[in-house]
Amino acid sequence: MAATKVLKKKAPVKKSVRPAAKPSQPAQRIAARPSKTASARADLAPDRIAAILRGLDEAYPNAVCALDHKTPWELLVATILSAQCTDVRVNLVTPELFRRFPIPAAMAQAPIPDLEDLIRTTGFFRNKAKSIKGAAQAIVERFHGEIPRTLAELITVPGAARKTANVVLGVSYGLAEGVVVDTHVFRISRRLSLAKGDSPEKVEQELMRILPPNKWIDFSHQVIHHGRQVCIARNPRCNACNLEQLCHSADKTWHS
Ligand code: SF4
């Protein structure tokens, strides 16, 4: 029997399941959505920063440090005591503290229990008593009783980290080696998109890059006042804020 030639059927060609490419977005829509880089650049545009600084000058022309003090030494102690405490509370305890121990040499000899009793209401009083006594001893032993005038020296004093050192240098000596970043400056710099850092140190570096050095001292005082009076942490009073039109914060409570 002649062999029958079996013809194999060709397998059907599978259709591609890949979805058809979407039509490209209209050029207009793409242009309306600025990239993150572009919006960050706009946030830090010199004109915008100048407008914010102008607004702060107008709202707080005479902003000064709220800690009562007569000397750089008193300011150093008051600033150490102000950690996790209000300036009002610190101002209640410092008159008696400085009456008893008016200069570093006196406080260097103070009994720790006496210091603790005097500053008890400022919180963390045991650590703070050790810090102010340690600061007094360092000032006497290493700096001849004078408060140093450089950041590098000041941050070696017990209890004086970068923020405290910046406060003392700026307020007592008018020296701006950095920007004071307390809780208000940290929060508001981020709300105003002037900084993105997740620590006071990072925010300070960002502010130092974008603010003119002759505004470093005033900026902190003004923003601290703004944070106490208007740009409050939980419920900012945006309807009373003269920076409202410059602010794009997600937690704004009012939009003009
Ligand atoms: S608009 Fe509101 S969130 Fe923005 S800076 Fe002013 S008070 Fe703060």
What is the string of SSEs from the N terminus onward? HHHHHHHHHHHHH
The structure class reads: mainly alpha
Radius of gyration: 30 Å
Based on Cα principal axes, name the global outline.
elongated
Total strands: the figure is: 0
Molecules bound to protein: iron/sulfur cluster
Poorly predicted segments? 1-11, 13-31
Please give the alpha-carbon distance between the first and last residues: 97 Å
Strand composition percent: under 5%
The average pLDDT score comes to 90
Number of separate helices: 13
Oligomer type: single chain
| Major sheet summary line | none
Share of helix among residues?
Answer: 40-55%
Outline the structure in words.
- The protein is built from 13 helices and no strands.
- The chain starts with 26 loop residues before the first helix and ends in a 27-residue tail after the last helix.
- The longest helix is centred in the middle third of the chain and has 19 residues, at 125-143.
- It has 256 residues and is mainly α.
- The chain has helices spanning 27-32, 36-43, 46-59, 72-81, 87-100, 104-108, 112-119, 125-143, 151-154, 162-173, 183-191, 200-210, 216-229.
- The chain is elongated.
- The structure holds iron/sulfur cluster.
- The site of iron/sulfur cluster has 14 residues, from helix 11.
